[in-house]
Amino acid sequence: MKSRRNFFKTASLTLGASGLLPILNTASPLKGDNRKEAGKMLDLGMAGYTFNQFGMEQTIAMMNRVGVTNLSLKEFHLPLDSTQEKATEVISAFKTGGITIYAVGVIYMKDKAEVDRAFDYAKKVNVNLIVGVPEYELLSYTEEKVKATGIRIAIHNHGPEDKRYPGPKDVFDRIKNMDAGMGLCLDIGHAIRAGADPAKAIVDYKQRMFDLHIKDVSKAAQDGKAIEVGRGVVDFPALVAALRKINYAGKCSIEFEKDMKDSLPGIAESVGFFRGVMKAS
User: Fold this and answer.
1) Domain-located, residue 274
2) What is the pLDDT along the chain (281 residues), one digit of tens a residue?
3) pTM of whole model > 0.90?
4) Is 167 helix (H, G, I), strand (E, B) or coil?
5) Is cis: bond before 229, omega within 30 of 0?
6) Measuring CA to CA, which residue among 213, 169, 173 is closest to residue 194?
């Protein structure tokens, strides 16, 4: 396998074609991310937390600049207790801007009322996937809601600081015998900080792999920091190979958590690098 350094050199040659350079030209926005190019391209998305410093219009504009059209919606763009009228208004605005809401979350659930609210929220937004974090004692009740509504839940791992679900195995071990609508949102940055190999987790837990948060970190340790995709320790060629091996059909959502008040350059670099990996692999 090529070293990551050699791969970076190879992939960098593809970034102009893969969408990074046009971002620098405001007259040449990208047109979308649904081209598969001989079956090599996975579906990109954005995790809503990326935009926690930006309003809806700014979020739409930034996503259009980098050519990503799928978004997991967070409550700062649509509060969890919103009316159906408000939800319809917000979803319509995103749609008019060329953005498809494919999921909601991350949503934390500490009691049954919060589980109910999360599923009601997903219904209002008209999506069938919640990225969520229910407490252990709520898993059975969450499973009941999954069965009753047909809305799946992807439980998100949050790294070694999270005493509930630090890594993907901690999620899988608790849901593996539950309804097939109970799955994982694998956060690869948090996973590697918790000592897990993201590529191996994708293969090991493939039947429950519903969503991905794509990020990079400075080192595979608890104090690893968020960094632009391709500059850290995650082996992205191995990750993409694992996703293709399992015929992954979900979204690969970039979650950029560095320089969050001035994040467009880092988002663009991360999207461009990940596209470059897909094209070069």
Assistant:
1) yes
2) 333 444 444 444 343 334 443 443 343 444 554 444 545 799 999 999 999 999 999 999 999 999 999 999 999 999 999 999 999 999 999 999 999 999 999 999 999 999 999 999 999 999 999 999 999 999 999 999 999 999 999 999 999 999 999 999 999 999 999 999 999 999 999 999 999 999 999 999 999 999 999 999 999 999 999 999 999 999 999 999 999 999 999 999 999 999 999 999 999 999 999 999 999 98
3) no
4) coil
5) no
6) 169
On whether residue 26 sits in a domain, the answer given is no
Taking the C-alpha atoms of 8, 4, 263 and 243 in order, what is their torsion angle to the nearest 10 degrees?
Answer: 100
Amino acid of residue 44: L
Return the structure tokens found at 174. Answer: 């608790």
What's the structural domain count of the chain? 1
Dihedral over Cα of 33, 122, 152, 112: its sign? positive
Residue range(s) defining the domain that contains residue 162: 4-12+42-280
